[in-house]
Design goal:
Layout (H helix, E strand, L loop, with lengths): L11 H11 L13 H6 L6 H12 L6 H9 L5 H5 L6 H15 L4 H15 L1 H13 L6 H4 L18 E5 L4 H5 L2 H12 L2 E5 L7 H5 L3 H20 L5 E3 L2 H8 L1 H4 L7 H10 E3 L6 H6 L9 E4 L3 H6 L5 H8 L3 E3 L14 H4 L1 H16 L5 E4 L2 H8 L6 E3 H6 L3 E2 L2 E2 L4
Parallel strand pairs: 1-2, 1-3, 3-4, 5-6, 5-7, 7-8
Antiparallel strand pairs: 9-10
This protein binds iron/sulfur cluster (2 copies).
């Protein structure tokens, strides 16, 4: 699709980038059936093709309206449309550009801006989030049911193996995950220790994704630069890579090169970090699982829910399933494997109705498989599905680690 740019555009470089990304769209509509919001609402403007049209209008010099903002806000950034698109349209980047254009030209109402700023600050700050979670646990009985069910019980503290191996990798500690589910990174450390790799905690915080997706670019960039500085020191000291156990954060870190491409001080360092970023499933092989004698499955049935950030964002498909099979699980796939569960970062808070509808659909398709456990690979999906599923939902690495003795005892079954 050709986008004629006006002679003078108030956001020239964004308009140019949008026009360039839109060029490969041939308007075929193959992406529509893959889009969860189009599935729920049936409105072309809530489909990828409709949103591309809205962004094209902005690039052509038309000022965005509240309607533009509403349809872009409803997009989950799940990128299922990217997977479905035969022309290779980079929709994920395009919607980021579109949102940036809206943010600069159509400021939000004060209440909405305050909510988004508060979310960005509270969720991406581990100390603040941990304190709020502690209060939530204390007063759970006084909270509305919808909120109370999303607060997990206080997790058991798990031992972290000592740094005893020559091979070392750094782990992104993150922001909400250590407070909600500290056992996930501890499980990754236990499995890697078993295969001869020491996982070192980075002492850092948020990857920047929360603020980035709330269009709070300055806050996001300062988190990104802080991480780059910390991790560069670790890489120079011999760490092999940066391991990330939340696929949403992994996608963001792999995007650091893109995010800082125009920063003369950080562009090269950001590119190095992006190349060194790995989802935990990328550092393990089925042979590792066999050699480490990890037999967590023993014929148990696991339903695999692949996070959008893993399958559509990072384009990693089939890897976790292979690892779970190697550990003896029967791996089951739902009938809607490519559709988002509705979590999508802060989407579940900002668009609660659509998010809940998508969760009900996903929990239904996963539970129809009658699994013993549901596995996923992202903290957001895990918490979101857990609040409705009757079957336990775990990170897949926790499921594998469950058979490894820790603190002198075998961990509880996942
Ligand atoms: S499938 Fe790709 S080319 Fe076709 S309308 Fe969607 S984004 Fe455009
Ligand atoms: S990212 Fe997801 S919700 Fe947004 S347009 Fe694409 S498929 Fe639809």
């Amino acid at each position: 699709m050709h986008t004629p740019l006006p002679e003078h555009h108030p956001l020239e470089s964004l308009a140019r980038e949008a026009a360039d990304l839109i060029k490969s769209c041939v308007h075929c509509g193959f992406c529509l059936p893959a889009c969860p919001t189009y599935h729920l609402l049936g409105d072309e403007l809530d489909s990828p093709r409709g949103r591309i049209y809205l962004i094209k209008q902005m690039a052509e010099g038309n000022a965005p309206t509240q309607i533009t903002q509403q349809h872009l806000d409803r997009c989950l950034s799940c990128r299922a449309c990217e997977t479905a698109c035969p022309s290779g349209v980079r929709y994920g980047r395009l919607v980021d550009v579109g949102r940036e254009m809206v943010a600069q030209q159509a400021p939000r109402a004060a209440a909405s801006s305050v909510t988004r700023a508060a979310l960005g600050m509270a969720l991406s700050n581990r100390t603040l989030f941990g304190a709020a979670l502690g209060l939530g646990r204390l007063f759970r009985s006084l909270l509305p049911r919808a909120l109370a069910v999303s607060i997990p019980p206080r997790p058991r503290a798990l031992a972290w193996p000592g740094a005893r191996h020559a091979r070392r990798m750094i782990v992104l500690e993150g922001c909400v995950q250590p407070a909600l589910q500290p056992g996930i990174n501890a499980a990754a450390a236990a499995v890697l220790d078993r295969v001869g790799i020491s996982l070192i905690r980075d002492g850092g915080g948020c990857c920047g994704a929360l603020n980035h997706h709330l269009s709070r670019e300055e806050a996001a960039l300062s988190q990104v630069r802080r991480n780059i500085d910390a991790w560069t020191t670790h890489l120079e000291a011999g760490a092999e890579c940066i391991v990330i156990t939340a696929s949403g954060c992994g996608l963001m870190v792999k995007d650091y090169a893109q995010v800082l491409r125009d920063d003369p001080l950080y562009a090269a360092k950001a590119a190095r970090i992006s190349v060194a970023a790995r989802d935990i499933c990328e550092v393990l092989t089925p042979e590792d699982i066999a050699r480490a004698n990890i037999k967590a499955g023993e014929g148990r049935r696991v339903a695999w829910q692949s996070p959008c950030t893993l399958q559509h964002g990072q384009k990693i498909r089939g890897r976790v399933e292979t690892l779970l099979s190697a550990a003896g699980f029967e791996v089951l796939e739902p009938t809607d494997p490519t559709r988002c569960c509705g979590s999508a970062g802060t989407y579940s808070i900002l668009q609660p109705e659509m998010s809940a509808q998508l969760r009900t659909l996903k929990v239904g398709s996963l539970e129809a498989l009658t699994p013993d456990v549901i596995a996923t690979g992202n903290i957001g999906c895990l918490q979101h599905l857990s609040s409705e599923a009757a079957v336990p939902v775990r990170h897949w690495i926790q499921i594998l680690a469950a058979s490894i003795p820790r603190n002198g005892a075998t961990a509880a079954p996942a």
